[in-house]
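In response to reviewer comment 3 from the previous cycle, which asked for concrete evidence that the modeling workflow produces usable outputs, we include below a single protein chain processed end to end. The sequence was submitted unchanged, and the resulting structure tokens are shown without manual editing.
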Amino acid sequence: MKKKFYQDFKIGILGGGQLGRMLLQEAVNLNLNVQVMDADAEAPCKNLVSTFTIGQLTDFDAVFNFGKNVDLLTIEIENVNIEALFALQEIGVVVYPQPEVIRIIQDKRSQKQFYVDNQIPTSEFVLINHKSELLNYQNMLPSYLKLGKAGYDGRGVMAINDTKDFEKAFDAPSLLEKKITFEKEISVIVARNPSGQISVFPIVEMVFEPQYNIVDYLISPAKISLETEKMAIEIAKKIIIKLNMVGLLAVEMFITKAGQVLVNEIAPRPHNSGHATIEANFTSQYAQHWRAILDLYLGSTAIRTANAAMVNLLGEEGYNGIAKYQGLEQLLQMEGVYPHLYGKKFTKPSRKMGHITIVENDFDTLKQKIKTVKNTIKVIA
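The workflow returned the following structure tokens.
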């Protein structure tokens, strides 16, 4: 990859959403020649690259034909055609993260089995192929039923509290995961380059919006004990090493009331829980992703201020149509507050339309600013 900073070294991203958009913003700083493919003709990345290809990410021919014209291929979403990625490797295209890694992660069932096989702590679960099998696992209730494939942002997850919920359950390959009581949900983002260097971002604490099960806001660094921090970091490192993965890996975990750290899910790409790093850390997760897959020295992940937060900006309930941002001017008057709008033309309830980063040394002031931000900006139509 000697030509990686020159225009004849071509990089492709599968996926043109907000994660791809923020990857492109960092790519400009390194003079990278990047092209994007997405199924949505109006994807957020559309107008930010010289070459934007419309194509289904799960279609073999679309992925192969796009990828064969680049030197290095990466992803911003894991729901892509794995067979095409393997075929591209065969003709000399470098693919990071590697197809074998994506194959494990894109199916929550194989993810869970990977944890068991590698002695990585996770919650109790069973695999089922049809909802009729739920009758055999009444002792697992209350639980969560998760589709093996295609679930994201709270979709494809269903609470199964008692046998009355069996009828409405997914009738597809899924996993039934025993509900656990936990004190906090955290995320650890870890990066690894082909040379084997590993770097970990400070742990963040996530607070979820209950109706849609999407992150409402997060706080960095998480307010946890040093012992818990050490356990979580070691688990994240172990996962990326066992996967032999090159790239950026987000590891979502539960901290139980008994002090256990259990892995929930992982994502082999930049992640919603890492948005705050753009302003809050010396190296953002997007810059780190490029450093990792280009085999560059991984940057410092230290936080610039004592505290930071990220607030997700979701489409308001009751609004469908061309997006309008109410309260943006007031938000821009706030010190240490940085809005990021994703360029999505249309809004709908719970759609991720942007995020707001807050940097603040005083923790009580940070919490107040989170409330103010949430009450100030709204996405309507």
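The radius of gyration is 21 Å. We consider this sufficient to address the reviewer's concern, and the full set will be provided in the supplementary archive.
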